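Quick one, probably user error.
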């Protein structure tokens, strides 16, 4: 198959996935609506306990229901978003959203992101197939396994309220490395060397970073936590880099 036909086929697949997910509201049991009109209120200044300044804006939304027995009906609800966008985002005309039925009205629940996620996933899989050729299935299997492991670790961390964060994510780093090496290289001496080098480099990088930040008392580093976070921002920062270094080293 020539590259021209390959790209044409890939474009058609992406287009079909995007169009299909854009019109899949009937598959959901929760109300789905498409925004038809947006009115923005005046931004209000907010200052948190860390003296971080943000601005919150209230939107009045008009939308059309895309499913349920009231399909086609016009509904009204509000949405509040902050300028930082840490927990929320502004709604725009054409956006599709999930709603919650509340008495005789509706409340905004969340954005409907399946189109973006679905299209990006398909593009990623197609690029892996193009670039990796015969190794594509192994790479996809490795990514899938690591994704399952990551969300399992997040679930455990939430279940234990972050009390065993270092143990959970240190174990995750080791398993990440071993799983990736086994999938990509196999159980060979060179794989063991790469896994050991990755783990040692990760421990060294995180240890050095922690030592420098502790020695300088985090000078020049601004750590900001959002409302739903109840753990130390420094711990979250180091934990995130711990996993990131491992994925870069073994990926």
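Nope, works fine. Designed sequence:
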């Amino acid at each position: 198959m020539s590259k021209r036909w390959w790209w044409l086929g890939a474009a058609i697949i992406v287009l079909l996935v995007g169009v299909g997910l854009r019109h899949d509201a009937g598959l959901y049991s929760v109300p789905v609506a498409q925004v038809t009109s947006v009115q923005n209120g005046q931004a209000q200044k907010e200052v948190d306990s860390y003296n971080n300044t943000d601005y919150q804006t209230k939107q009045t939304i008009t939308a059309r229901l895309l499913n349920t027995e009231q399909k086609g009906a016009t509904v009204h609800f509000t949405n509040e978003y902050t300028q930082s966008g840490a927990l929320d985002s502004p709604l725009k005309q054409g956006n599709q959203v999930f709603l919650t039925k509340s008495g005789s009205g509706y409340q905004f629940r969340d954005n409907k992101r399946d189109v973006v996620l679905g299209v990006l996933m398909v593009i990623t899989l197609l690029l892996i197939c193009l670039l990796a050729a015969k190794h594509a299935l192994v790479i996809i299997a490795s990514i899938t396994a690591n994704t399952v492991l990551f969300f399992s670790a997040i679930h455990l961390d939430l279940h234990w309220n972050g009390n065993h964060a270092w143990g959970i994510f240190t174990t995750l780093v080791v398993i990440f490395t071993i799983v990736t090496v086994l999938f990509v290289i196999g159980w060979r001496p060179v794989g063991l060397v790469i896994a050991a080098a990755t783990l040692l480099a990760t421990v060294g990088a995180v240890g050095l970073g922690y030592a420098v930040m502790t020695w300088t008392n985090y000078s020049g580093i601004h750590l900001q936590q959002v409302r739903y976070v109840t753990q130390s921002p420094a711990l979250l920062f180091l934990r995130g880099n711990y996993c990131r270094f491992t994925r870069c080293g073994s990926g």
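The chain has six helices and six strands.
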